[in-house]
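Summary of Year 1 activities. Much of the first year was spent building the evaluation harness for sequence design. The harness presents a backbone, in tokenized form, and records the residue chosen at every position. We chose the following record to illustrate the format because it has been used consistently in internal testing since the harness was completed.
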């Protein structure tokens, strides 16, 4: 078991935020119990997934990398950054440090059960980047489904009825531990530099533009919750207006949002998800699904969804677009690009 402090408590709104330190115990094979009133599963998970170095480390871990030197060889990452990320992922019980240098054995970092359970998030990110983002430093991994032997793309479906799901097919919102304040990552997450020494645009350039910053992730999540007016983003999220304006402009430039005239006033435009933006829904929902399985607040879940088609509680499932069979982590082969 490992421990990590959580230092954000919300006592009734963005103007009454206290910082206290609570130690969380992260058993690798069981959910972490979150204290009442603190950052919920969504906030904690976005802080993890919204860091591109974490995603790259996990990408190679899923392809079999276990040793420090192998990550250094595969990634344009410094010693200090890799050391910090491996320590953080180990503290979160996503990786497990195994070995004993005193006995001549080199340490390995192996994925735990909760670490292996992140594969749907990585798969949906790869699929979205492949379909919508032309610029990549290197080719994205190939995904092979063992069951049918074909290269595939994951399709989001309802685990209860098996039907494919689009954003409009799911309804719901905040649950017992869900508030805007508790769902925003506690600290600004970081994405890789765009400099040549850091590998150019990165492996997930636009994914990081969407979730690699606390306010970007919050605005995107709010859009899927139905917010579309500037003042709603500002007031509900408690974000500075200059930041809201910059993020909305950036999302429009990426083609994820489109600006539309307001029915109330011409100078109050609305911001709506485009087809490209809606296509990011599988990333959002698999991230939330993983977070709520592994981080459970005392009060209950942060978000509760229902599948309109079957009327049952929605839980994400990925299926193979080649054979339509449900995907399981053990059936997915991730191959390094040639």
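For this record, the design step produced the sequence shown next.
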């Amino acid at each position: 078991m490992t421990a990590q402090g959580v230092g954000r408590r919300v006592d009734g709104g963005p103007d009454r935020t206290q910082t206290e330190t609570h130690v969380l115990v992260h058993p690798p094979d069981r959910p972490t119990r979150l204290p009442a009133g603190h950052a919920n599963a969504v906030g904690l998970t976005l802080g993890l997934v919204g860091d591109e170095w974490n995603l790259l480390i996990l990408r190679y871990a899923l392809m079999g990398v276990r040793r420090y030197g192998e990550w250094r060889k595969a990634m344009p990452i410094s010693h200090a950054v890799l050391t910090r990320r491996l320590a953080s992922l180990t503290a979160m019980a996503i990786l497990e440090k195994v070995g004993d240098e005193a006995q001549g054995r080199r340490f390995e970092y192996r994925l735990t059960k909760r670490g292996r359970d992140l594969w749907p998030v990585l798969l949906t990110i790869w699929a979205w980047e492949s379909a919508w983002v032309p610029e990549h430093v290197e080719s994205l991994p190939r995904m092979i489904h063992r069951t049918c032997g074909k290269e595939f793309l994951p399709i989001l479906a309802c685990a209860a009825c098996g039907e494919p799901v689009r954003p409009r097919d799911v309804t719901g919102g905040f649950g017992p531990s869900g508030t805007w304040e508790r769902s925003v990552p506690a600290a600004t997450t970081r994405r890789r530099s765009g400099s040549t020494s850091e590998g150019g645009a990165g492996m997930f350039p636009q994914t990081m533009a969407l979730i690699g910053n606390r306010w970007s992730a919050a605005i995107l999540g709010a859009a899927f919750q139905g917010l579309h007016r500037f003042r709603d983003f500002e007031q509900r999220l408690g974000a500075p207006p200059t930041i809201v304006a910059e993020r909305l402009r950036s999302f429009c430039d990426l083609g994820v949002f489109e600006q539309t005239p307001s029915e109330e006033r011409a100078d109050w435009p609305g911001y709506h998800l485009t087809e490209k933006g809606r296509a990011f829904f599988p990333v959002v929902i698999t991230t939330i699904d993983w977070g709520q399985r592994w981080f459970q607040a005392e009060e209950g879940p942060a978000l509760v969804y229902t599948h309109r088609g079957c009327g049952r509680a929605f839980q994400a499932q990925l299926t193979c677009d080649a054979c339509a069979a449900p995907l399981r982590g053990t059936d997915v082969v991730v191959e390094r690009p040639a």
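The CA atoms of residues 94 and 114 lie 6 Å apart. Quantitative recovery figures across the full test set are reported in Table 2.
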